[in-house]
Amino acid sequence: MCALFGLLDYKGIVPHKILKKLTQALANSAEERGTDASGISYVRDGKVVIFKRPKPAHKLRFNIPDDTVAVIRPYA
Questions:
Q1: Which listed residue, 27, 29, 32, 33, has the most CB atoms within 10 A of its CB?
Q2: What is the C-alpha separation between 33 and 1, in angstroms, rounded?
């Protein structure tokens, strides 16, 4: 079973460092629903970027671009 999460900073007021910490915390919390794989998606330069690995979230570091305003974990 997988878990979904996302965050949206539509006003762009949350510092990038905080967005990175939130993304990692959400991914780690979602891990209780499954540890087979983890990943996130975000838009960069008008294209959807999907970062997925066959590892639990606590073993990954999600590096989102500085100008990111939305992150989602669409699947496990």
A1: 27
A2: 6
What CA dihedral angle connects 56, 60, 65 and 69, to 10 degrees?
30
- The full set of domain ranges for the chain reads 5-73
pTM: 0.75
Spell out where 1-76 has E strands. Answer: 5-8, 38-44, 47-53, 70-73
Of 43, 10, 11, 40, nearest to 25 by C-alpha is: 40
The per-residue pLDDT for range 18-46, each reduced to its tens digit, is 988 988 888 888 887 777 888 888 888 88
